[in-house]
Here is the input.
Amino acid sequence: MKTLYLSLFTLFVLGIVALTVFAPLARATPAGATITVNTLIDSDADDTTCSLREAIIAANTNAAYHGCTAGSGDDFITFSVIGIIALSDSLPAITSDLSINGPGTSDLAVSGSGKYMIFDVTVPATTTLQNLTVQQGYGPWYSHGAGVYANGAS
Here is the structure.
């Protein structure tokens, strides 16, 4: 009888250890896609390049868009180019969780050219911007951000 209790206790402890180790893995959300921007030109053209504008659309829609791979959940936008992306219009609103990671603050800038708002994050989307410079954004309304605007935040 003592052996049976010891075996049951051992199984119970092993079960708790297994749940502690493996349960977080089962609940983890799948990693998003990595979408690589490969042009400094701010375009929305059906070609083989992937602009920042097109990458945001691919991330928002979880579908391939022009030269960009499909988004999938919480996506990552990276860059294979360095220089300045001069916007020709405001970028599309970011409506899904997204991390935008440039090659370095001195290597990549996104410029509104003093005419356009740059990043518009629609709440509840969470966006991380790192290793890039946001410059010369334009906010035509007193309460709106020119470089980064959290649309719907209080």
Observations:
- The beta strands are 34-37, 75-79, 83-86, 98-101, 108-111, 119-122, 127-130, 133-135, 148-151.
- The longest strand covers residues 75-79.
